[in-house]
Automatic annotation (TrEMBL):
Residues 1-45, 382-503 are annotated as: Disordered. Residues 476-490 have a biased composition (Basic and acidic residues). It holds the Pfam family RabGAP-TBC. It comes from the Eukaryota. The gene is TBC1D10A. Gene3D superfamilies: putative rabgap domain of human tbc1 domain family member 14 like domains, Ypt/Rab-GAP domain of gyp1p, domain 1, Ypt/Rab-GAP domain of gyp1p, domain 3. PANTHER family: RAB GTPASE-ACTIVATING PROTEIN 1-LIKE (PTHR47219), TBC1 DOMAIN FAMILY MEMBER 10A (PTHR47219:SF23). This is Rab-GAP TBC domain-containing protein. Residues 111-284 form the Rab-GAP TBC domain.
């Protein structure tokens, strides 16, 4: 966790347009010595007097939201195996997305390893591509003066975002400053949307896992229209719950607004939030609908549970204080995966509700764009050329170094009897002074997995007889990672790329 250099919190814009939360406020100034003294305390939770409190594995002070409920502990050996598999996918992302998307989806349902979650979210959401296609865009927005009508509103919301997380516990700490920068930049990037309170928790969750350049997160949608879609789907999933809500005349906005606009970040235990987001980034908005339907089904889907819901107030309270069992990580994920609600059903219901809306209320004031259902749809919708997402390997070996798990350099194949005779005849006639060197193709074939076949450009004839080891590409360790599980288990999680500092 980065150390905080701010202690006064975000300030009102100065006359010259300097804003709190920008790079200027984070840079060392005249009081750098005092700031360094404060930063030596470590995390923002320590700087704010919470050093004696215990922090859970998610960064929350024990006893707050992140520590609620029983956590599903993955055995260390299983976790290491998953990390190895995810490293292979991330290092060959475009190939996996094109040919093995179903496997990516299954692994997202099992849960992305915590050490790789931030990097995986960038790839799944398309944020990595956008970042590469727009170099310096965030810096440009960060250094620009924001719209004054949004700045005060954003500053008032900063302390409300996960106040018991070590990243945001300190007023004016690095977490709140980065959050301000991201939200301000988004109002400049999408001025037609501006700022709404639901953007802050979305951006805060993303900041816990990746650098400030990657957020902002998803924008606002026609939440009322989504409410009608959810309510109609509920009739198929749980007729009992649908009938009760209809009889009580409870508008979906009363219980699902925070669910959808915050992607359940303020509703579920933190372990469940992360698992839902893993699936959401991979499969798209259908996961948000499925989670809402599962919560409604298990909270109101049986006569026994409706005994305590005689009126609107009691029903709303039932949905605001959901049973911990319903929200428990393993139970919730299993229910969401098995719920028979497809993308096609959601799209069909979207068109039906949009038509009804236009018939009864006229045209929507906000644009309701077609939904991109997850990582594959985002990849297919990306216009124009896109850079290949293939980061450098974490381990670099010289061309002639043996690969992990191998027993030294690959040996050339033995010469056949015919080749030996041809060599003897050539030597007897004085044409050769030394045995012939086997061709590069034969050496590669003998090496097996240690050197996969590659397109090698033709060489200068003068160098045809040189040793083939010099022609091995420098990234052979990277190609080898596709086939060697042993190599995966040895691979370091630390990369030379800046993105991997947030793993």
């Amino acid at each position: 966790m980065a150390k905080s250099r701010g202690e006064n919190g975000p300030r009102a814009p100065a006359a010259e347009g300097s804003l709190s939360g920008t790079r200027e406020s984070l840079a060392p100034g005249p009081d750098a010595a005092a700031a360094d003294e404060l930063s030596s305390l470590g995390s923002d939770s320590e700087a704010n007097g919470f050093a004696e409190r215990r922090i859970d594995k998610f960064g929350f002070i024990v006893g707050s939201q992140g520590a609620e409920g029983a956590l599903e502990e993955v055995p260390l050996e299983v976790l290491r195996q998953r990390e190895s598999k995810w490293l292979d996918m991330l290092n060959n992302w475009d190939k996996w997305m094109a040919k093995k998307h179903k496997k990516i989806r299954l692994r997202c349902q099992k849960g992305i390893p915590p050490s790789l979650r931030g990097r995986a979210w960038q790839y799944l959401s398309g944020g990595k591509v956008k970042l590469q296609q727009n170099p310096g865009k965030f810096d440009e927005l960060d250094m620009s003066p924001g719209d004054p009508k949004w700045l005060d509103v954003i500053e008032r919301d900063l302390h409300r975002q996960f106040p018991f997380h070590e990243m945001f516990v300190s007023r004016g700490g690095h977490g709140q400053q980065d959050l301000f920068r991201v939200l301000k930049a988004y109002t400049l990037y999408r001025p037609e949307e501006g700022y709404c309170q639901a953007q802050a928790p979305i951006a805060a969750v993303l900041l816990m896992h990746m650098p400030a350049e990657v957020p902002p997160g998803p924008g606002r949608e026609a939440i009322q229209l989504d409410g009608e879609i959810l309510f109609s789907l509920l009739q198929k999933v749980s007729p009992v719950a649908h009938k009760h809500l209809s009889r009580q005349k409870i508008d979906p906005l009363l219980y699902m607004t925070e669910w959808f606009m915050c992607a359940f970040a303020r509703t579920l235990p933190w372990s469940s939030v992360l698992r839902v987001w893993d699936m959401f980034f991979c499969e798209g908005v259908k996961i948000i609908f499925r989670v809402g339907l599962v919560l409604l089904k298990h909270a109101l889907g049986s006569p026994d549970k409706l005994k305590a819901c005689q009126g609107q107030y009691e029903t709303i309270e039932q949905l605001r204080s959901l049973s911990p069992k319903i929200m428990q990580e393993a139970f919730l994920v299993q229910e969401v995966v098995e719920l028979p609600v497809t993308e096609r059903q959601i799209e069909r219901e979207h068109l039906i509700q949009l038509r009804r809306w236009q018939e009864t209320r006229g045209e929507l004031q906000c644009c309701s764009p077609p939904r991109l259902h997850g990582a594959k749809a985002i990849l297919e919708a990306e216009p124009g050329p896109r850079p290949t997402l293939q980061p450098s390997p974490s381990i670099r070996l010289p061309p002639d170094a043996p690969l992990p798990g191998s027993k030294g350099k690959p040996k050339p194949p033995k010469q056949s009897q015919k080749e030996k005779e041809q060599w003897k005849q050539a030597k007897a006639s004085g044409q050769l002074d030394k045995p012939p060197v086997p061709s590069q193709a034969k050496v590669a074939a003998a090496a097996g997995d240690a050197c996969p076949p590659q397109d090698v450009p033709p060489k200068d004839p003068a160098h045809q007889d040189s040793a083939p080891q010099d022609s091995a590409p420098q990234d052979s360790a990277h190609h080898h990672s596709q086939d060697s599980a042993h190599h995966h288990s040895q691979e370091s999680l630390t990369s030379q790329e800046s993105e991997d500092t947030y793993l």
